[in-house]
Amino acid sequence: MAAAGIRGFPELRRRFYHQCGRKIPSSIGHRHYGAASSLIEGKETINWYPGHMVPATRNIREQIKSADFVLEIRDARIPLSSANQELQEILSRKKRLIVLNKMDLANPNMALKWKEYFESVGQNHIFVNAHHSKTVRKMLDMARTQLQSAIAKEPTLLVMVVGIPNVGKSCLINSMSNITRGNFSVQEQPKRAKVGPLPGVTRHVAGFKIGERPSTYVLDTPGVLVPNIENIETGMKLALTGAVKDTVVGEERLARYLLSVLNSRAAHLHWKSRFSKSSAIITDSLSGVRDLLASACIKFDGSLENNEDMESLVDVQMNHLRKFFHVPVELGDAGLERVSKHLLDLYRRGQLGQYTLDVVPGKNSKLLKLKL
Fold it and tell me: Domain of 196?
């Protein structure tokens, strides 16, 4: 395999699709999404706009007018892609703190670069992990600092929490509630917000009291997206991080995109894998997956900038994973869907590493012109 290099991979690719009873997809080399997204196939626009998002967006626009402060929750792995661009104009007119949640899943070095970026455009922000009270306390301190003048003169404060689906809004509110619980008597203990692993758990605007003197209320809002996600790669990032349901994009399509990202970032070089070209000892599921993906990358001598080469590498990796997870080839598409779910689950639990998917825009980037 190593001698034949990537030129031997197309034959494996044909064999792989033949075994699964599938037609080999036509080349998509005319698309230019970059090496990490060379496996994006299908419709160019991703749409996931359930009926509840229409009135929810309308309610958010109305409620935000009376808010004293806005906590805009984003995913630390996609600091720009997780911003709802349709709400940015109205949000920019309010006192706001951008809260980049799930920092434990993002690359620490990239987080520093994003910190510098937000500082360069004068946007207040903070990276947090909603499950760690220390970072949530820092967030509350920053919010209090920005609300200093209002705290001194207002008897009641309204803080609004907004964001796209599944960025951890409700989990963050629960952490805020736990931290401020000592401010209340037993009878006044605030209710907890609903938390779930799927996007769309919170469907109505709901209020929670988190403080006294002044009385401070937090409005938890449903996660809302724009009606049409026209940038296909933005849509894939949103789906990969859980803001869009997997079924909208397709588990296999999403898993293949993930593998192309891992390959383009040379993830196997950071895994400290025990894999060697001569032998490998697989002791558990996680190390086994890493070793199998690494083995394909080590034997790969094609160009990651070439779409067909990347496709062939991902085909080999998917076949390795199918065998590792003991998924019968006779299952065809259903089997690959099962393999894809296993891989996506490992990624979302942070077991494949910490990856920031959004790249910090350069000085001449059009993204600098976006309202953050």
Answer: 53-227
Question: How many C-beta neighbours within 10 Å does residue 293 have?
Answer: 27
The reported pLDDT for the residue numbered 50 is: 63
The residues, ordered by sequence, that sit 6+ positions from 181 with a Cβ below 8 Å of its Cβ are 189, 190
- Whether 364 maps to a domain, the answer reads no
Give per-residue burial for 199-220: e unless 16+ CB within 10 Å, then b.
bbbbeebbebbbbeebebbbbb
Q: Cα-flanking dihedrals φ and ψ of residue 100, to 5°?
A: -95, 95
Does residue 197 lie within any of the structural domains?
A: yes
The number of CA neighbours under 13 Å toward the Cβ of 45 is: 8
> Would you tell me the crossing angle of helices 133-146 and 169-180 to the nearest 10 degrees?
80
Same domain, 86 and 170: yes
- Are 291 and 258 contained in the same domain? yes
Task: Assess whether 180 and 321 both reside in one domain.
Answer: no
Within this chain, do residues 261 and 202 fall inside the same structural domain, yes or no? no
Listed in sequence order, the DSSP H helices in the chain are 9-19, 53-63, 88-91, 108-120, 133-146, 148-153, 169-180, 232-240, 246-249, 251-264, 285-299, 307-324, 333-348
Q: 3-class secondary structure for 285-315?
A: HHHHHHHHHHHHHHHCCCCCCCHHHHHHHHH
**Count: domains in the chain:** 2
Nearest Cα to 98, choosing from 172, 152, 200?
172
Diameter of the chain measured on Cα atoms: 75
291 plus 340 within the same structural domain: yes
CATH classification at residue 133: 3.40.50.300
**Rounded distance between C-alpha atoms, residue 333 and residue 355, angstroms:** 28
Dump pLDDT digits (tens) for 260-317: 999 998 888 877 544 444 344 444 677 888 888 988 999 998 898 888 999 999 999 9
In a domain, 367, yes or no: no
Helix (H) or strand (E) holding 211: strand 206-211
Is 353 among the domain residues? Answer: no
